[in-house]
DNA sequence: TGATGAACAATGTGTTCATCG
DNA sequence: CGATGAACACATTGTTCATCA
């Protein structure tokens, strides 16, 4: 049965009816790591700023969960570092994220999968608009 | 605080990160009722057929849940009827759905809200494509 | 098997709390 | 307050079970 397989695959990739917030955030995190953009909290505020006009406020917990998952998946690894240059004045430890050896490759694959899902969602939404609004 | 209010409203309307499957299905059900398209099971198979090319299989339970909610919201009311013309051969009872007095009006309002959400989702998805794929 | 419905389980996400320097 | 993390609670959904005439 082809359909059963397809459902299985989508299940394995964690795809539901629409794209999951987690996947959406991961996509942005990957892009940010590609650009060597700082650490978790910075990415959080960056996304918050970025999405302000869209009325979407990415929750703090989701950002961290997404980062942890990307580490789990072997895409990223972590390094710790003191934020300030002078340890005497700033003890704040931050966590930086980098691609693992095959991380960039894995990331590309993941992005491809997400792209497929994004397109699928776009199709579904366009269809709904066409079908239900005259 | 304006943002808190906005979140509250979206919460009350059941809006999450992306549009909910329930809302999406409700939209189609309303349209089908507008077109006097049969009963629950028929709408289910119709949607299954309709979405086959999209790889989306609307679950049976969601259809019924959506119909029940529309009744709860006072948009639809139910009538029961025997499916076959001859009660001696076919005792299958089916449930037909119709708009209540102000049902059509309520439905229009709901559709407008969903449209807003659909557009918001489309924007978010387009943005993700633009931001993360070169 | 057609048709409707509900119970139950799992998952994703929002909220809150905890910690640390 | 910046930064990271986890606990907990809740809502939406998927799966399974139940029933009917």
Key phrases:
homodimer, 134 residues, mainly alpha, Arc Repressor Mutant, subunit A, two-stranded antiparallel sheet, 5 helices, 60% helix, 10% strand, disordered N terminus, DNA-binding, DNA binding (chains A, B), WH_DNA-bd_sf (chains A, B), Similar to Replication termination protein acc. no. P68733 (chains A, B)
Commentary on this structure:
- The structure is a homodimer of 134-residue chains.
- Chain A has 134 residues and is mainly α.
- The first copy, chain A, has one domain (19-132): Winged helix-like DNA-binding domain superfamily/Winged helix DNA-binding domain (Arc Repressor Mutant, subunit A), CATH 1.10.10.10.
- In chain A, 60% of the residues lie in helices and 10% in strands.
- Chain A is built from 5 helices and 2 strands, in the order ααααββα.
- Residues 1-5 of chain A have low confidence and may be disordered.
- Chain B binds a DNA duplex (21 and 21 nucleotides) through helix 3, helix 4 and strand 2.
């Amino acid at each position: 049965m082809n359909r059963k397989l397809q459902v299985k695959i989508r299940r394995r990739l964690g795809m539901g009816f629409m794209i999951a917030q987690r996947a959406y955030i991961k996509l942005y995190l990957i892009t940010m790591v590609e650009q060597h953009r700082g650490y978790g909290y910075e990415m959080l505020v960056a996304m918050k700023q970025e999405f302000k006009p869209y009325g979407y406020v990415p929750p703090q917990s989701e950002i961290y969960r997404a980062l942890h998952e990307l580490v789990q998946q072997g895409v990223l690894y972590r390094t710790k570092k003191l934020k300030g240059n002078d340890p005497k004045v700033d003890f704040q430890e931050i966590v930086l994220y980098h691609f693992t050896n095959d991380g960039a490759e894995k990331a590309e694959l993941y992005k491809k999968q997400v792209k497929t899902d994004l397109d699928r969602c776009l199709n579904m939404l366009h269809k709904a608009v066409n079908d239900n609004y005259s």
